[in-house]
Specification:
Elements: E1 2-6, H1 15-24, E2 30-34, H2 56-61, H3 70-84, E3 89-92, H4 95-102, H5 109-112, H6 121-139, H7 148-152
Parallel strand pairs: 1-2, 2-3
């Protein structure tokens, strides 16, 4: 048996290779635990992360779920990622468990979409447009950009 833990899956570029490497070492089963909820929403507060369309959780689930659908989304994403990344199981931390563990003291907007400070739509669009321009520049050197193997492979 093999196992793995990771902090989060943003674009999905690392986790697939990790499961493959564990199997190459002879593991008959690979179980992955992600100690965060699925990243469903981009951060607009200074963390340089993906645009909404680059987030693999959104590629699987589609438009961002409302607060009452986060658990359903997590289950759909876990099942799809297990198949896609060829692991026996993949488990995310739930948003509720994260809130309990952190005592509600941290921003979790990238997981639940509850931004503590409203970001006007025009500012969100500007931030996302800037990130897309960076992705175009950086994709040629392979350091950023959407994960094309994930986007083109059906689950």
């Amino acid at each position: 048996r093999g196992g793995g833990m990771d902090g989060s899956i943003g674009r999905g570029s690392t986790i697939g290779r990790s499961g493959e490497l564990v199997r190459q070492q002879g593991a008959r089963e690979v179980h992955v635990v992600i100690h965060s909820p699925p990243v469903m929403f981009p951060c607009y507060y200074g963390i340089d992360m993906s645009t909404p369309e680059e987030l693999v959780a959104r590629q699987i689930y589609g438009p961002a779920p409302g607060p009452d659908r986060l658990e359903d989304a997590r289950e759909v994403i876990e099942s799809a990622f297990s198949r896609f990344f060829d692991v026996d199981s993949l488990t995310y931390l739930s948003v509720d468990t994260l809130r309990q563990a952190e005592n509600g003291g941290r921003c979790a907007a990238c997981f639940d979409g509850a931004y503590p400070v409203t970001i006007p739509a025009c500012d969100r669009e500007d931030i996302e447009a800037n990130r897309r321009r960076q992705d175009v520049r950086c994709a040629s050197v392979g350091s950023r950009g959407p994960n094309p193997s994930f986007v083109t492979r059906s689950v």
